[in-house]
Amino acid sequence: MGSSNPITVEDLAKSGDTAPLIEVRGLRKTYQLGETEVHALRGVSVSISAGDFVAIMGASGSGKSTFMNILGCLDKPTVGQYLLEGIDVAGLTKKELARIRNQKIGFVFQNFNLLGRTSALENTELPMLYSRVSKKDRENRARAALALVGLAERAGHFPSQLSGGQQQRVAIARALANQPSLLLADEPTGNLDSRTAVEIIEIFQRLNAKGLTIVLVTHEPDIAQFAKREIVFRDGHIKRDDVVPSPQLASELLKTLPTIED
Ligand code: ADP
Ligand code: MG
């Protein structure tokens, strides 16, 4: 892949690997709160293939975010193994972990987490500051990522000048900047109205169709129906892990929903 070319959806296609992208065995996470131990994960084993689109459901406190933080190499399990693309994450140094986070994983959060006094373009360029990309390529790739999420014309806007849905789209563009193989989204539609939520999911489905692996936390059953697979957490365990029989197409649903002015 020529680094000077702007990214396209095709560049994100990284499926076709036979080994699972994510392999997790006997994952436990215990937080020490003074005298008490909080068991956030109590033995979670799961494998996720490249190209999958997984919705993680479960009540508040069931361990979803803890699980996502471990998948994202933001936190380490107390016990258990995590293989990412066949690499045992436990054996990596902090520096190697940071590199993996930056190069292989894109993050999207409920609160967008954009830098406020920074344009959409600069926000999107951020992850590339830590990789060897020239200034010009950085801008080209950021513009391409913004175009991918439908925000080409808003590159110069600051977060305060954008709607919630637009801010989340900037966050998605930023997550895509380094062409990750895994997109982790923790309640990405939690702060959005229902049409805007479906618009965000439409982007995810489009990216997933081109091979990007997505793991998305949601507490809305309607949103989970857009994924290919649904995993339900309960009290730090996986309670259910099912294929979604025929995932709904966000692009189709959008045609039936009234538009709100941008
Ligand atoms: P969810 O995302 O499903 O709401 P979390 O993974 O955030 O659940 O939390 C699982 C459990 O672990 C909860 O009981 C929560 O209070 C606890 N927990 C999460 N993070 C911490 C932390 N940093 N310190 C102590 N307890 C925590
Ligand atoms: Mg959570």
Summarize the structure.
This protein is α/β, with parallel strands linked by helices and 262 residues long. It has helices spanning 64-71, 94-104, 120-125, 135-148, 164-176, 194-209, 221-224, 250-256; strands at residues 22-33, 36-48, 53-57, 79-84, 87-88, 105-109, 182-186, 213-217, 229-234, 237-243.
Task: Please write out the topology.
Layout: E1 22-33, E2 36-48, E3 53-57, H1 64-71, E4 79-84, E5 87-88, H2 94-104, E6 105-109, H3 120-125, H4 135-148, H5 164-176, E7 182-186, H6 194-209, E8 213-217, H7 221-224, E9 229-234, E10 237-243, H8 250-256
Parallel strand pairs: 3-8, 3-9, 6-7, 7-8
Antiparallel strand pairs: 1-2, 1-4, 4-5, 9-10
Helix pairs in contact: 4-5, 5-6, 6-8
The chain binds adenosine-5'-diphosphate (ADP) and magnesium ion.
Magnesium ion (MG) binds next to helix 1.
Describe this entry's structure for a reader.
With 262 residues, the chain is of the alpha/beta class. It has a single domain (10-15, 49-74, 93-255), classed as 3-Layer(aba) Sandwich (Rossmann fold). Helices cover 30% and strands 25% of the residues. It has helices at 64-71, 94-104, 120-125, 135-148, 164-176, 194-209, 221-224, 250-256, and strands at 22-33, 36-48, 53-57, 79-84, 87-88, 105-109, 182-186, 213-217, 229-234, 237-243. The strands form two sheets. A six-stranded mixed sheet has the order 6-7-8-3-9-10, sandwiched between helices. It has a four-stranded antiparallel sheet with strand order 2-1-4-5, with helices on one face. The longest helix is centred in the last third of the chain and has 16 residues, at 194-209. The radius of gyration is 18 Å and the shape is globular. 40% of the residues are buried. The structure holds adenosine-5'-diphosphate and magnesium ion (MG). Adenosine-5'-diphosphate is lined by residues 31, 33, 38, 40, 58, 60-66.
